[in-house]
Amino acid sequence: MSVTLDGDKSVSVPDRTRRTPRTHAMHGVRRLLRGPRPESVPSLVGTACTVVGLIDVAAGVFPRFRHSRMHTLAEVLPGALGPFAAALSLSAGMLLLLLAHGLKRHKRRAWRAAVVLLPMGAVAQFAYRHSIVGVLVSLTLCWLLVRHRDQFRALPDPRSRWRALANFVLLGAGSLGLGLIIVSVHPGRVVGDPSIADRLQHVLYGLFGVEGPVDYAGRTGWTVAYSLGALGLLTAVTTIYLAFRPEHPAARLTEDDESRLRELLERHGGRDSLGHFALRRDKGVVFSPSGKAAVCYRVVSGVMLAGGDPIGDVEAWPGAIERFMDEAQAHSWTPAVMGCSETGGQVWTRETGLTALELGDEAVVDVADFSLAGRAMRNVRQMVKRIERGGYETRVRRVRDIGDAELDRIRRAAADWRGTDTERGFSMALGRIGDPADGDCVIATAHLPGSGTEDSPHGDLKAVLHFVPWGRDGMSLELMRRDRSADPGMNELLIVASLQAAGKLGVARVSLNFAMFRSALARGERLGAGPVLRCWRGLLIFLSRWFQIESLYKFNAKFKPRWEPRFVVFRTSRDLPRIGIAAMRAEGFVNLSPPRPFRPRTPRPCGHTARTRPEHEASAA
User: How many CA atoms lie within 13 A of 292 on its CB side?
Assistant: First the structure.
């Protein structure tokens, strides 16, 4: 390549963009010596631990696998200790699987364990197998971990010590199941014909290191005994570890945090209809450096879930979002935002590089435009008139205007009429009714005079709607509960009554329920909809048997609202299944609690149970 300088002379400059085969080879060698990219080391080492862990589990459960060609090739990997160590291979495999999960999440504690265990594995490979390859693989992985130790800075997850009990129950049950498999996979070595009860007794004894009633020929009894003992030891060690490690407090708003959030909502609460839900007291919060904005969140299954838009001044949102992302990175949590507005989604994606996906639509009714007149409102109008002719009465009031005795009755009714054991709601639920600090909330009630009896704890109360403030001129629907024995249409009656009474309360706009995938349902039923859209709509209708997808959309559409899109913000498409499960757990649709025999017989108390703030904190302590 030639470059012309000032004048007529040209100077030849070598073209560095062209590489000879030798240059390519040298470049490849340099890349190999540098090793993998630092950001890929946690995933690489975690995947290696997963592969070895699965091999060890198979070797511990199935004796024939320990003598197969595949296992012979895999014995050079760290952690695979060979047939002579069958008693330990199962427990080692399970520990490696747990360790792999922590390494992939950049956990510092998992890194420390791996740095200690890998050299021990190298010594075991050399002492028992005389495997130079196994020693080199172990030391190479250890070298990668030490060299890139700055990639493992994630703090431990905040958990309760109840995890120790759950670990004992679940891992103990798993150990029993695996133990029965281990005892039963040696039919040619068993002496006699032991019954299922004898096998189960042998497993129970073996978990405690005691010889059971089942006898084996040869050295099989030694292998089974040590395998069962390793399972019992693993259950005991992990339970003790979870029980005695430092406990971290669960997410809970402090009085100072709640006070600061209320000040932000007083100035900027009219921007987002979900703003008041940030005052749930089972959420954590991070504030911007200026204190003018905040993001509330809850951590579920390693996912850091934020609900709605940030609270406060829009100009300060980037600072709060940065603090949120720093917190997620510090603990290696997966960041996600559920139900943010279009403006909020734009700020989140611009500041963090995350991706936004439309989740559904929020139904918003402008009070000035609402009317029961016209053919479009015919069904709602006829239903309301029919219920009113049945003698039902409605009352719409601020919480501050309701007496304590009536508030207590409303709370009890809301708890008794709840259809599930768990309280549902996260991003669009407050979780309490009648708190003294929530005097601006609105409660609509339906009554049937003369229906109250001495046996009815709720008197003539038949249905309850609870609204939270949306700035100074709006309110957002938070709760709908009704007596199952009441006439159909209670919710429609109370929504109409609330909209008609909104003007007297100074309310100009009312946010109703959130309809997931509303646009897909609406477009899929139109004339000319394509096959893909129709299939997607059919799947949503099928899922509506378990989740209120189509029913909420049709219910909201009765009141002719305007639809405001809501979005979910996430990092990559691979995170969507995990985020979906975490969101369903947070909303109360999925419950991963211990099996029913190990759970309390009494249902979880309703979040709307009457308690003032000091009493709530005292009972929690």
Answer: 8
375 DSSP 8-state letter: G
Q: Which residue has the tokens 């997850």?
A: 157
Integer angstrom CA distances of residue 391 from 379, 451, 482, 494, 502: 19, 10, 16, 14, 23
E strand residue ranges, 385-488: 393-398, 442-447, 461-469, 474-482
Structure tokens, 366: 């402008």
CB atoms within 10 A of CB 575: 17
Instruction: List alpha helices for 148-284, DSSP H.
Output: 162-184, 196-207, 220-244, 255-268
263 in Cβ contact with 285 (< 8 Å): no
Query: Is 447 strand, coil or helix?
Result: strand
**Residue 13 CA: distances (Å) to CA of 16, 108, 163, 364, 478:** 9, 50, 68, 68, 72
3-state class (DSSP) for residue 304: strand
DSSP state of 129: I
Instruction: Give the C-alpha separation, 361 to 358, whole Å.
Output: 8
Tell me which residues of the chain have a pLDDT lower than 50: 2-11, 13-17, 70-71, 73-74, 76-87, 244, 246-249, 594-621
Per-residue pLDDT at 30: 57
Q: How many CA atoms, within 13 angstroms, populate the side-chain half-sphere of residue 144? A: 24
CA angle 270–294–277, rounded 5-degree value: 55
d(CA 228, CA 186) in angstroms, rounded, equals 14
**Residue 36, exposed/middle/buried by CB under 10 A (0-12, 13-18, 19+)?**
middle
Which pLDDT score is estimated for 589?
65
Please report the pLDDT score of residue 288 as a whole number. 93
Strand partners, 303: 300, 334
Strand-pairing partners, residue 596, are: none
Question: Tokens 């089972």 correspond to what residue?
Answer: 282
Q: Is 86 exposed, middle or buried (0-12, 13-18, 19+ CB in 10 A)?
A: buried
The residues facing 590 across adjacent strands are none
